[in-house]
Structures are given as C-alpha cells and as structure tokens.
Specification:
The complex is a heterodimer of chains A (236) and B (312). In chain A, 83% of the residues lie in helices and 0% in strands. Chain A is mostly helical. Chain B is of the alpha/beta class and 312 residues long. Helices cover 33% and strands 30% of the residues of chain B. Chain B has eleven helices and 14 strands. Chain B has a six-stranded mixed sheet, with helices on both faces. Chain B has a four-stranded antiparallel sheet with strand order 2-1-4-5, covered by helices on one side. A four-stranded antiparallel sheet of chain B has the order 12-13-11-14. In chain B, strand 9 and strand 10 form a beta hairpin. Classes of the chains: A mainly alpha (236), B alpha/beta (312).
C-alpha cells in the first residue's frame, strides 16, 4: 500500500476515533434533513434542488471544521517534524491528509442519498440531474477541502485555520451572487471563478468538461500552494 | 557515513550554525554537546532533511540531503526534540504506522514491531493510548518509533529528557547496545549522558564546533587546569590576596565566607602544577587553620563549561 493511502487511512481512523466524525456526520444529516423536509412540502416538487442548496450552504461551515486541524495540529504538537522526515514528498503528505478528509465528507454526502430514495418512492425525480448534482457537490467539496488544508498549513492555530478557510470559501461561494453590481466584463470573469456557478450547470444534469476542469484545477492550485507552504519551512 | 562540510544556517538574519564541518563514521556513537540554543537541533534537522542549509554540503551515506532527500530519510530513524507523538493512537498502531510510512520498498513487518517493543520495554502498555502514558513511557515510544524500521542511523535529540534516574540509565544502556549495530547521533546538554554512551563528542557553542574528540581525549587535552578547594579558619584579612599569589595558582574561582573567620575557597591552578604544598606553608606562616584541602581532576563538565562560557 502506498504511503499516501497509509497516511489517509490513519487520518480517517483518527476522525472516527475522536468525536469529530460522529459530530460532523450527525449534525450535517440533521440540518440537511430538517431543511429538506420543511422545504419539500412547500416546493411540492419531486427533486433534490432544495436539498443541494442547503448542503452547499452548510458545507461553508462544515468543510473548514473538518480540515482545520489537518496540518495546524501537527504543527502545534510538533509531529509535523516526524511526518516531514519520513521518506515521502510534501505533496504526498498533503494528498494523504486531503484524501482522508475527502473520504469523511464523501461518506456524509452518500448518507444524504436517503432523501433521494424518499422522493423516488413518492414521485419521479430526475436521476441524471441528481447524479450531476452529487458530482458537482463532490467536486465542490474537493475545492473547499483544498482551501481548508491550505489555511491549515499556514498556522498552528485551528481557530485561525477555520476562519481563514471560511472566508476564502465564502468569497468563492458568493462571487456569482454579487456580480450584478459589477461592470459586465468583470462580472463574467468573476462568475467563472465562482464555485456555485459551475455547480448550477452540473445540477441541471449537464456534465460539461469546462466545469469539471474548473473544479480540478482549483483543487490542484490550493493543494499545490499547501505543499509549497510545507516546503518553505526549509528556507525560513 | 555522515559528512557535513562548511554547514551554515541562518534563520532570517540570525546565525544558528556557523560554518561547521565534521564526519560521523559508520558504527560510531557521536554526542552533540552544547548549551541550549547552541545549534545542535538545527544541525540535526538539516541532516534529517527537515531544514535546508543556507550554505554547505551534507551527505548521508553518499546521498545529498537536498537532492536525494528520500534516500537519506529512509536510512535515518529520528527522535525529534520534545518527543512529538500522536497521543490519540495506541502504541502498537502508532509503531505500525511509523513502520509502514518509513519502511524500505519490500521490507516486511515480520517481528520488527514486536522486537522493538520488547527492546524498549513497551509490552505491558502496547494497547494503551499514548496520551495516557507517563513521560518515561512516551520517551520509550519515541525511541521505538525511531528504530522500528531498522534504520542504519539513529538520530536522537535529547533522548532522556524528563526521565527518572533509573529510566535514564536504562535508556543509556539501550543506546550503548544499539551503538554496536548502528551509527548514532545524540544531542544533549547533559554531560554524563554523552560520556556514558558516546565514543566521540562534538562540543558545539554558538553555532561552532569548539572541541571534537573522544571523551578521554577532551579530558586530557584540557587537563592541568586543576581545581583546589580549601576550607580555612584564619584571622588575616588579606589571606585571599596572598593565596592567589602562591606560585601555580591561576585564578580565584569562588570565595564563600561561612562565618567571619571561616571561608571556603576554590582556586584554579596552572597546568601541570600542584601548589598544595605552598598553600599549606602559607597557612602555617599566617597561622591559619587548614580544615580541608582537596584537589579535583578536570572533568568533562569543566571542559564543557570552559568552552561554552559566554564571553563578555
């Protein structure tokens, strides 16, 4: 088994050995489920649009909470020195941590699939749009986690990592909602940078490579920055 | 095995390590000795590829630490300063994790983990979380993780900090045992530790190597600067001045008057001279009562203190 997976497994295990995983999963499902059921009868349509809207909103808080300790805690305790003197490269370390957090959120998202089953039993939801929506969520989560792990690499303090991650994620989330204040050509550009804008396409069931490339390159960018931050320790 | 050439490290504008060079031969146990902040940990962190040197070349078994970091790291077992550990893991899981992360391609986890736990005396706590362990056990876990993948080189940064005297002796014996098979670097500011375990000592002070050799070499090369301690009862106010002027006395180290006419005096002597007879004569001349006179050999501690005294 490669070192990335060994590290990811250990990190995932430590999520489940501590209350973190259970708190995250339970709270996430409770909030999502509550909002879903209240809006379901108001909207009175058999689709998951409402649910995806809620999930995208609560991810803004949950992702920083999941990612905040990934590197900051290692820095605070000093175990980062153990990790960075192991025979693995900085990017491998970052990937291991990233995958562990990704797995935790993926498990949580899969559990929200129960709502699809509910709707499918009473109505006829669009399967393609639902799958597109989940694909969009998964990609979006990746970007948010990459941002979260990046801010976690900047500080020893989990709270600072949380707040920084929240701010950056929120900016990318809100971009397409504030663009009508902007001149037209800037608005178009900002819209393209927004995480939520690209989600819209996928959630309609339109799998466009431009959206996927956007999410993947955002992930790559922040993960790359993180490993650069880790490497910069050498030269301080 | 380890070769350091003209290593210099700046943190920002402050100089931590100043142009040091040394070699560590295969199979030797080397002690880095120095006061806190002397640059020991910095040097070690450069060898383990945690930090990069500002200038200078460091190679481990022929591999450069900058360009072939992974090969270097695979050869090294490292116990960082303050023994960082994952407190939420239990001992076995932790050691298995460290083994899996550091193992050579194809290296099997046969009895390695079990053996290391046996050597470090961890059998009775192996299913406990590290967070629940006492400082002594944590230190042993730190040692165990450093050697779990059977590296050729062990680098231990202050391995006995926070242990009780019995544990310290245990760990020292363990290091001595391991020294028969492996190359070991120990950082310490505790002299007896280095003296007991190492066959070569590097004394580092303010980022420079100020002495280098076996413990007995160091002692002999600084010998002669002996110490004489006297306890004396007299009524002569200028006895102190007279005793300093005795031939062979270099300087006064300490003068602590106990009562008005009883004092304890420590003196340093010039190399190779024994002025005890003259001191005795001085006492008889001045009608002072010599209660005690003792000559002390130079210890490694004195060498260390001489070399690392802050100037100015």
């Amino acid at each position: 088994m490669s070192q990335i997976l060994i590290l990811a497994r250990k990190e995932l295990k430590s999520y489940f050995d501590s209350p973190v995983a259970y708190v995250v999963i339970t709270l996430f499902l409770l909030i999502a489920g509550w909002q879903f059921t209240t809006s379901l009868f108001l909207a009175n349509t058999a689709d998951l649009r409402q649910l995806f809207g809620i999930i995208r909103f609560i991810l803004l808080f949950f992702i920083p909470a999941v990612s905040m300790r990934l590197l900051s805690e290692e820095k605070r305790v000093g175990t980062i020195e153990l990790l960075l003197t192991m025979p693995l490269k900085e990017w491998q370390l970052v990937m291991g941590k990233f995958l562990a957090a990704y797995a935790l959120i993926a498990i949580t998202l899969i559990l929200t699939g129960i709502h699809y089953i509910t709707i499918a039993s009473v109505g006829n939801p669009d399967f393609g749009a639902t799958m597109g929506g989940y694909l969009g969520l998964i990609l979006m989560v990746g970007v948010y986690l990459a941002i979260g792990i990046f801010t976690s690499s900047l500080t020893q303090n989990q709270i600072i990592a949380f707040i920084l991650a929240f701010v950056i994620i929120f900016v990318f989330y809100i971009l397409d909602k504030v663009v009508f204040f902007m001149p037209h050509f800037i608005a178009n550009l900002l819209e393209l940078l927004s995480t939520d804008y690209h989600f819209g396409n996928l959630a309609r069931g339109v799998i466009d490579s431009r959206d996927i490339i956007y999410y993947l390159s955002m992930m790559f960018f922040f993960l790359f920055l993180t490993s650069q931050v880790l490497e910069s320790r050498k030269w301080k | 095995m380890i070769s350091v050439k003209n290593l210099t490290k700046y943190y920002g504008s402050s100089l931590a390590v100043n142009n040091i060079s040394f070699e560590v031969d295969k199979g030797s146990v080397v002690g880095f000795l120095g006061p806190n902040g002397a640059g020991k940990s910095t040097t070690v962190r450069i060898i383990t590829c945690y930090l990069a040197a500002t200038t200078g070349v460091v190679t481990v078994d022929g591999h450069d630490v900058l360009t072939e970091a992974l090969q270097v790291r695979r050869k090294i077992g490292y116990l960082p300063e303050n023994t960082p550990l994952y407190l939420e893991l239990n001992v076995v899981d932790y050691l298995r994790f460290m083994f899996d992360m550091r193992k050579h391609p194809g290296q099997q986890n046969g009895h390695q983990i079990k053996e290391v736990m046996g050597i470090c005396g961890l059998d009775e706590v192996k299913h406990k979380n590290i967070g629940e362990l006492s400082k002594g056990y944590r230190q042993r876990v730190g040692l165990a993780q450093a050697m779990v993948h059977n590296p050729d080189i062990l680098i231990l940064d202050e391995p006995t900090v926070g242990l009780d005297p019995n544990q310290i002796i245990e760990i020292r014996n363990l290091i001595k045992e391991l020294g028969k098979l492996k190359t070991i670097i120990i950082c310490s500011h505790i002299l007896p530790e280095v003296e007991a375990t190492c066959n070569k000592v590097l004394i580092i002070h303010e980022g420079q190597i100020v002495a280098d050799g076996t413990p007995s070499d160091l002692r002999t090369s600084f010998e002669g600067k002996g110490k004489i301690f006297i306890e004396i009862k007299n009524n002569i106010p200028d006895f102190l001045e007279k005793v300093i002027r005795v031939a062979g006395i270099d300087r006064l180290l300490q003068n602590s008057p106990v009562t008005e006419n009883l004092s304890r005096i420590s003196l340093e002597t010039v190399k190779g001279v024994d002025p005890r007879e003259d001191i005795f004569r001085l006492c008889t001349q001045t009608d002072s009562v010599l209660l005690e006179m003792k000559r002390e050999e130079t210890s490694l501690e004195d060498v260390f203190r001489q070399l690392t005294r802050k100037e100015g």
